Amino acid sequence: MVTKNKRIFLSPPHMSGCEERFIREAFASNWIAPLGPHVDAFEKEVAEYVGAKGAVALSSGTAAIHLALKLVNIGQGDIVFCSSFTFAASANPIIYQGATPVFIDSEPESWNMSPNALRQAFADAERAGKLPKAVITVNLYGQSSDMDVILKICKGHGVPVIEDAAESLGATYKEKASGTLGKYGIYSFNGNKIITTSGGGMLVSDDLEGLERVRFWASQARDPARHYQHSRVGYNYRLSNILAAIGRGQLIVLAERVRMRRAIFGRYVHALSDIPGVLFMPEADFGCSTHWLSALTIDQQLCGVSTLDVIDALAEENIEARPVWKPLHLQPLYSRCPYYSHNEESISEMLFQSGICLPSGSSMSEREQKRVIETLRGCLLGRVKAVV
Ligand SMILES: *Cc1c(COP(=O)(O)O)cnc(C)c1O
């Protein structure tokens, strides 16, 4: 088969080669289950890496959000403010807890939670006499939200912030690790994330007592007794020792993966920015993005093609690209939830109309990226397919 047609994926797993050594250790000691030394070590290593006091390894990022919501006592009838421009998993745990999400728009500067919209939502909540019990801010495509501003607004109302940093492990906000600015932060090791355990997540915090409760809930809430004794509802949310072994092998190369993804983004910017109507996701000066996914918007008027045309043109060349997240307030599931836009304009809706994510995997070669770029230029400049 000619290499030209080898499929280029959006963000495939990229192993370091060290994972199997850790897995072999687990096999050699028959520590396949439960929990085990790799889980303990992985938690410690992630906590150290990001500079949090503690971490709990869980079966998914979604599970981590769910238990973070439990830690801040979200229950039936409560309200939680949540970024709208994100994956459904950011908000679904609000529903698990019987609470109601209120969706907050993005700001143009970072594509993350708009402080304007957040202030407006708080003002209305205050007037209605019912404040949210938590705010979930999402750090999209590898970039932190403007945490100082968001934290200040929330602090003013005494509301804790949960950082959905599923996409921003390895990024920074003013020198601190993304995911460690809020009261609780969560990471995901799903297969498409910057590092993966094939599936898994982590909750990080300085609240060590809270993390102990998370460990308890995540392992079926078993009370200390010799028989099986339960006084609380528990969950089966822990990460297995084998998956933690993979995570340890991945964590070793996280910094390298960040460098690669940033280089990929830089090459796209360099090769495509001259095209009228093409704008890349901005990198705010408050931090360093991992550029987990390289995202850009395409002005259909100027380019004469829609995002779906571009995605189709790439698909023709066996290249995977995707629209950006569809804002949650536009999802059928959440269409009846309140939504606060940035100003008269709904930024997330505009981004959804014009945004796409390009292949960004750290294992993509420069040659492969060139194929993506040539195809894009051909499509956006209305030329016949370029021959690579
Ligand atoms: C991937 C992702 C999640 C969910 O993580 P899982 O580990 O797949 O459960 C949550 N929020 C965002 C923003 C994500 O991208």
UniProtKB/TrEMBL annotation:
The entry's keywords: Aminotransferase, Pyridoxal phosphate, Transferase
GO function terms (MF aspect): pyridoxal phosphate binding; transaminase activity
One Pfam family of this chain: DegT_DnrJ_EryC1
Record's keyword annotation contains Transferase: yes
InterPro entries from the UniProt entry: DegT/StrS_aminotransferase, PyrdxlP-dep_Trfase, PyrdxlP-dep_Trfase_major, PyrdxlP-dep_Trfase_small
One GO term (biological process): polysaccharide biosynthetic process
Record's keyword annotation contains Transferase: yes
Modified residues (N6-(pyridoxal phosphate)lysine): 193
Alphabetical list of PANTHER family matching this protein: DTDP-4-AMINO-4,6-DIDEOXYGALACTOSE TRANSAMINASE, TRANSAMINASE
Family: Belongs to the DegT/DnrJ/EryC1 family.
This protein's name: Lipopolysaccharide biosynthesis protein RffA
Annotated organism of origin: Sporomusa ovata
